[in-house]
Amino acid sequence: MALDPHGQPYNIRFNRARRAERDLSEFLGLAKGLLGDGVISGEEASLVANWVVTHPAAAEQWPINHLVRRLTTIFSDGIVDDNERGELAEILTSIVGGTAGVILGEDASTNLPFDAPPPELRWDGSIFVFTGKFAFGTRADCQRRVVSRGATCAANITTETDYLIIGTFGSRDWVHTSFGRKIQKAVEYRTSGVPLSIVAEDYWVRCVDGAV
After folding, report:
1. What is residue 180's predicted lDDT score, i.e. its pLDDT?
2. For the chain, first and last CA: distance in Å?
């Protein structure tokens, strides 16, 4: 058995956690550097993709694991267009904005008012509203996915809304964001007795993919 300098067995979990923390710190530095001019070039997008490949342990950790999904889609046709580069810049900006949460290993949406426990999601005839930025894809991608399951989508929260889905890159400062108004309205309706559920993207993805 391998021993540390003090003659004690290495704590494998601790070492993995330390490595993941270092990798995430490195990624934050990379992302901040790439965002310095406010845009992401095709070469910079490839640099991000290559970093993920060479740091497989970090690729399993939040929020890099969500970034991996988007990179797979972005590079699927071998061409990174202006819209995709803009999307990547937004995702990196969101990740950098949650620096403290990343380093501490906390979910970016820790303080958001999700239903606990999360509800069973029903599709046929249900009305979904999406807000925030999504690791799954664009908002249109998310909407198409639930429509394929028999649900419908709406742009705004009403008393008819069944589920509000909040993107992974939701901010702890959600009250002060543009999408925060939808969340506030949903909370108000839920508090008043409207049967409306507020759900995190990661749970929604597992449900829509049949994992829950």
Report:
1. 72
2. 39
Is the pTM higher than 0.85? The answer reads no
Count Cα atoms within 13 angstroms, Cβ side, for 12. Answer: 2
- Amino acid occupying residue 159: T
Under a CB-based contact definition with an 8 Å cutoff, are residues 152 and 128 in contact? Answer: yes
Lowest mean pLDDT among 25-29, 78-82, 124-128, 167-171: 167-171
Q: Are 202 and 163 in contact (CB under 8 A)?
A: no
Q: Which of these ranges, 8-12, 35-39, 73-77, 195-199, has the smallest mean pLDDT?
A: 8-12
Amino acid at 27: F
Strand, helix or coil for residue 132: coil
Report the amino acid identity of residue 125. G
Q: What is the pLDDT of residue 100?
A: 33
Phi, psi of 3 (to 5 degrees): -115, 150
Sheet of strand 163-166: strand arrangement? 152-153, 127-131, 163-166, 197-200
Tell me the C-alpha to C-alpha distance, in Å, between residue 5 and each of 2, 12, 131, 177, 195: 10, 15, 50, 49, 58
Instruction: Verify cis geometry, omega within 30 degrees of 0, for the bond prior to 117.
Output: yes
Pick the CATH number of 127-208 from 3.40.50.261, 2.40.50.100, 3.20.20.70, 3.40.50.10190: 3.40.50.10190
Looking only at the bridges linking them, the beta strands covering 163-166 and 152-153 are: unpaired
